[in-house]
Amino acid sequence: MTKGEIITEKGTLKVEFFDKDAPIAVANFVKLSKSGFYDGLTFHRVIPGFVVQGGCPRGDGRGGPGYQIKCELDGQNQYHEQGVLSMAHAGRDTGGSQFFIVLSREQTAHLDRRHTCFGKVYEGLDIIEQLRQGDKIVKITIEEDQ
What we know:
Structural class: alpha+beta
Oligomer: single chain
CATH topology: Cyclophilin
Number of domains: 1
Radius of gyration: 13 Å
Helix content: 10-25%
Largest sheet: 8 strands, antiparallel
Strand content: 25-35%
Order of helices and strands: EEHEEEEHEHE
Strand order of the largest sheet: 3-4-6-5-7-2-1-8
CATH class: Mainly Beta
């Protein structure tokens, strides 16, 4: 199982990735993280009770890595609940680097099987609630099983 840490200015979020349910999204996130793509980027969109979104190199929600990946919506873990990491996109199969972290199941159930869930925060849920627009991702580290 792939695990990682999203280190923010407010603290560290420990994440387990859904390797089996979203292998394309996990591999993409791991690749971008290991290359340092996310280092220093901001959470450009924060909607209380809904999501915290980051991963845009432009900082305005309109940027990406220069390519798009397919949505993976059929796995077992495709439900948006608190702490889930999910791919942001501008329509099916248009994800790239932007992702969001779910703040509330009540406000995000309509996203199930529309956005790829690819991981979940298992430690640091209290930190997610503290994140604000403009807060930085310091670094993302990845630990893969050998």
